[in-house]
Design a protein that fits this description.
By secondary structure, the chain is an alpha+beta fold. The protein is built from eleven helices and nine strands. It is globular and about 80 Å long.
Length: 392
């Protein structure tokens, strides 16, 4: 039996399950976050803005974090596990930062990479991988979130052109994006369109007064007679298969990312409990505090094992969308539970932005419902288990 002390930050020795390259990716992203984000994130969150978003995007591009799991066009060609570890470290800093990277790479870039023409890939992906161009992904509408098949945004043919009209809501990166991938209803079904955001008729007013994801750019997309050439349509897909395949990529990143927020909360609670004294001793020495810490550590490490299992399956080409639902449902639900429990250990200090716990807890309220609500993932799993669809 090993005689070295157990590492409270890795009690199960899960680092042994990653190879040197995977750990190097993790450490690179962790170091960048520690240098560029953690000293400022509480202030950005309190102010409700991400003031250096374009500069941050370029820096993320320089370390290969944008579209990192894609091949070619300036993308890093990283493995799914490497991408997952990057998402974990980004969200350990803040969910808004991971959302920036996730929307850029797993939604906007993936849509163009997987379903676009070669001309579209050459035009957009290198600049997006470098962080020179920020992308957004327009699917959710004001009245249609979990039911994208009922979207009202329309694209009509006028001669050789497409003309788009409609609105999208809760769009990360919207008002700083140079390109938007917008999904719209056509006479031939739902299609995706690559929309330069300087196209006349396109606007992206920023959404303010948020209580969650405050250090993130969130916008509405308004399309009023946006005229696009025929070549703007994504040629390789029609129907919901297109946007849902992109969402599956983003949900995979969340499986890992939510655990970063949970880890940050657990570590803050553990350190606080060791230094905080009540009744003449550190509260870490009380049984109820230790029970909370043990349960939080248990759920975090179970979630890491699940994320790694799904990542290995994705790298092997055997991961199913329903399996991603297992990961998203479990890991976000457990992460928000960890954040809430950590807050109780910190007591009143738990609501202070001097500590990361309340910020993560608020952010996870959004992560819990975006990219598929709890109920939607339960129904995906339920259908897989029973063969019966219960969405309507």
């Amino acid at each position: 039996m090993p005689k070295s002390a157990l590492d409270p930050r890795d009690p199960l020795g899960l680092d042994d399950l990653f190879d040197a390259e995977e750990l190097a990716v993790r450490d690179t992203v962790r170091a960048w976050c520690a240098d560029r984000v953690l000293p400022h994130i509480a202030d950005w969150y309190e102010r409700g803005e991400l003031p250096e978003v374009r500069e941050l995007a370029r820096e993320l591009g320089s370390i290969g974090a944008l579209g990192m799991h894609l091949e070619g066009y300036g993308c890093a060609g990283a493995s799914a596990v490497q991408y997952g570890l990057a998402c974990l470290e980004l969200e350990a800093a803040d969910s808004g930062l991971r959302s920036l990277v996730s929307v850029q790479g797993s939604l906007a870039m993936y849509a163009i990479h997987r379903w676009g023409s070669e001309e579209q890939r050459q035009q957009w992906l290198p600049g997006m991988a470098a962080g020179e161009t920020i992308g957004c992904f327009g699917l959710t509408e004001p009245d249609h979130g979990s039911d994208p098949a009922s979207m009202r945004t329309r694209a009509k043919r006028e001669g050789a052109d497409w003309v788009l009209d409609g609105r999208k809501m809760w769009i990360t990166n919207g008002s700083v994006a140079g390109v938007a991938v917008v999904w719209a209803r056509t006479d031939d079904g739902i299609r995706g369109f690559v929309v330069p955001t300087d196209t006349p008729g396109f606007s992206a007013p920023e959404i303010k007064h948020k209580g969650s994801l405050r250090a993130s750019v969130t916008s509405e997309l308004v399309l009023e007679g946006v005229r696009l050439p025929a070549a703007a349509a994504l040629p390789e897909v029609s129907g919901l298969k297109g946007p849902l395949s992109c969402l599956n990529q983003a949900r995979y990143g969340i499986v890992w990312g939510a655990l970063g927020a949970a880890r940050s909360c657990l570590e803050a609670a553990r350190e606080y409990s060791i230094g905080r004294e009540q009744f003449g001793r550190p509260i870490a020495g009380f049984q109820l505090t230790q029970a909370k810490l043990a349960d939080m550590s248990l759920e975090l490490n179970k979630g890491l094992l699940l994320a790694l299992h799904l990542g290995r399956r994705m790298d092997a080409g055997t991961l199913r969308p329903e399996q991603v639902s297992y990961g998203k449902l479990n890991n976000v639900r457990e992460a928000i539970g960890i954040a809430r429990t950590a807050r109780t250990i910190l007591g009143a200090n738990g609501i202070s932005y001097d500590y990361p716990v309340m910020r993560h807890a608020n952010n996870l309220e959004s992560v819990l419902t975006y990219e598929g609500t709890v109920e939607m993932h339960q129904l995906v799993i339920g259908q897989a288990l029973t063969g019966q669809a219960a969405f309507r």
